[in-house]
Structure formats: structure tokens, C-alpha cells
């Protein structure tokens, strides 16, 4: 089951930081569990536990949006009425924990997984009269965190499947897409490009990080081939480390060999 997939360190995403004044950093600390929420026909609602691990009272504004992805992995967020949650505001004293309930409004099962993110945005403390100690603390940078937790509405029959497509080499650059051809997400933990000489020896190796590949989505990757190694490379090997597995839970490796001709070795254009 998808619920049993190994949780990756990137499941909770820090989206941004807001600083209120110049000086040394001082950040509030809080945790949200679980790091992913799965809903469906058998589980229409869930609780998220929010805990204040700092020594200060923290206030939150809570929001929820539908989540999609651009080919470069950038999050695309939009308003939605597919889910409901409560409360929308929260205050936690030091070491205090409270729950947020989230529920699905779907009356029928979905055929393709739907993805959302619920956000916990830390708010500035209320304006109050400051003691001398408080005034000194206020001169420091106050870091406010916005944390997003993924929520998935799962189909009745999840299919997790991916492929490498659209591979092309031009001007010392290789590009390809990792495409989700199933109806449920999978996660990519790393992408490795290896140059192989005719003798079978490795000419170079490059790596990039991965993230979610949502149902029906794809992620575009590109690598510059080292100019001093390009003409000595016979072909390229793309390897994808991911959460893809067969029916028995055995990892599935995505790999593809890409021929490299001498004509494809040229000056690489600047990366963007």
C-alpha cells in the first residue's frame, strides 16, 4: 500500500522565511505529524498534531490548497473546495500540542489521485508592552516558518508506475523527462547521469536531487556533459532512485541508455 512507502526527509517542505529585523537569527520551532496524510473511501478524515517545541507561544494561520507541479518541479497551488479543515487559526503555548482535523468532501471514489497541501504559517507575536529583556530579544531577527504537509486523496486501485521519456542530446547537454504513468504519486530521491566509454569505463558521473512526481505529471531534467569528457564518451546511462516497487515490494529501477555521438559534443549553453 502507498501508506507504507518509506517517508522521505523531504516530505515536509519549508516554503519560506520572513525576517522582521536585522541581527542574529532566532527561530520558533514546531512540528506537525504525520508528515503525509492519505484519505480515500475508507478514511474520509484525519488529524494532524501540531506541537510547539519552543519556549515561546506561537500563533498560526492555517490554509489548504490544491497542489500540482510544473515540469521543473515548482509547486503550482490553487484554491479548492475538495477538502475542509478546522481550525483556521491556532495558538500554542510552549510544549503544547493541538490537533487540526482535515476531511474530504468527495462522495465517490476518484480514479486518479488528487494532491493538496495544508500550510501552517507562523504569525508574528501580538504587539505588547516590552520589558527590557523583551526589547533586546525583539532586536534580533525573528524567523517565521511556513510549513506544508502533503494530503493525498487515493484511488480505489492505486497504480504506481513511471518511465523515462523524451531523452535527447544536443550541444553537450542531455535532457529527459521522468513521467508518472500511474494514478498515484511516487518520489524520486536522486537522478544519476553516468558517461560510459567504449571500453566500459566511467568517464564522468553527475547527480541531481529529486522530489515528488505527482499522478499524471512529469519532471524535466537536464545535465551538462563535461566538455573534456564528451568526445571520449560512447553512451550515457540515466538511473533513477525512487519509491517505485513491484507488487511484492521489491524496488523497481528506472534506467535508460542514451547514445552519444561526436556531433552532439559542442559548447554547452549557459544553465538557467
Mean pLDDT: 86
- Low-confidence segments, given as residue ranges, are 1-27, 268-272
Oligomer: single chain
Q: Which CATH class of the largest domain?
A: Mainly Beta
**Number of beta-strand segments:** 20
CATH superfamily of the largest domain: Immunoglobulins
The percentage helix is under 10%
Largest pleated sheet? 8 strands, mixed
The topology string of helices and strands comes to: EEEEEEEEEEEHEEEEEEEHEE
Radius of gyration: 23 Å
Q: Specify the number of helices.
A: 2
Could you list some keywords that capture this structure?
single chain; 272 residues; mainly beta; Immunoglobulin-like; eight-stranded mixed beta sheet; five-stranded antiparallel beta sheet; 4% helix
Topology of this structure?
Blueprint: E1 13-19, E2 25-27, E3 30-33, E4 37-39, E5 45-52, E6 58-69, E7 75-78, E8 83-86, E9 89-92, E10 97-104, E11 114-123, H1 132-138, E12 141-153, E13 162-170, E14 173-180, E15 186-196, E16 202-209, E17 212-213, E18 218-224, H2 227-230, E19 235-242, E20 254-259
Parallel strand pairs: 2-12, 4-12
Antiparallel strand pairs: 1-12, 3-5, 5-10, 6-7, 6-9, 6-11, 8-10, 11-12, 13-14, 14-18, 15-16, 15-17, 15-19, 19-20
Amino acid at each position: 500500500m502507498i501508506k507504507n512507502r518509506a517517508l522521505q526527509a523531504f516530505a515536509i517542505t519549508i516554503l519560506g522565511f520572513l525576517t522582521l529585523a536585522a541581527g542574529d537569527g532566532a527561530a520558533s520551532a514546531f512540528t506537525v505529524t504525520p508528515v503525509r496524510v492519505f484519505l480515500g473511501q475508507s478514511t474520509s478524515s484525519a488529524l494532524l498534531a501540531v506541537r510547539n517545541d519552543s519556549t515561546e507561544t506561537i500563533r498560526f494561520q492555517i490554509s489548504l490548497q490544491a497542489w500540482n507541479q510544473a515540469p521543473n518541479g515548482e509547486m503550482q497551488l490553487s484554491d479548492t473546495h475538495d477538502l475542509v479543515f478546522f481550525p483556521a487559526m491556532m495558538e500554542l503555548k510552549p510544549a503544547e500540542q493541538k490537533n487540526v482535523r482535515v476531511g474530504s468532501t468527495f462522495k465517490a471514489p476518484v480514479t486518479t489521485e488528487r494532491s493538496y497541501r495544508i500550510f501552517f504559517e507562523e504569525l508574528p507575536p501580538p504587539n505588547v508592552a516590552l520589558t527590557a529583556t523583551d526589547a533586546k530579544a525583539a532586536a534580533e531577527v525573528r524567523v517565521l516558518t511556513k510549513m506544508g504537509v502533503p494530503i493525498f486523496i487515493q484511488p480505489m486501485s492505486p497504480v504506481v508506475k513511471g518511465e523515462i521519456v523524451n531523452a535527447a542530446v544536443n550541444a553537450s547537454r542531455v535532457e529527459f523527462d521522468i513521467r508518472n504513468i500511474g494514478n498515484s504519486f511516487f518520489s524520486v530521491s536522486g537522478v544519476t547521469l553516468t558517461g560510459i566509454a567504449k571500453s566500459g569505463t566511467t568517464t564522468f558521473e553527475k547527480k541531481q536531487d529529486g522530489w515528488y512526481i505527482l499522478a499524471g505529471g512529469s519532471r524535466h531534467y537536464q545535465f551538462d556533459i563535461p566538455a573534456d569528457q564528451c568526445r571520449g564518451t560512447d553512451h550515457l546511462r540515466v538511473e533513477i532512485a525512487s519509491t517505485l516497487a513491484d507488487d511484492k515490494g521489491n524496488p523497481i529501477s528506472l534506467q535508460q541508455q542514451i547514445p552519444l555521438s561526436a556531433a552532439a559534443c559542442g559548447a554547452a549553453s549557459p544553465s538557467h
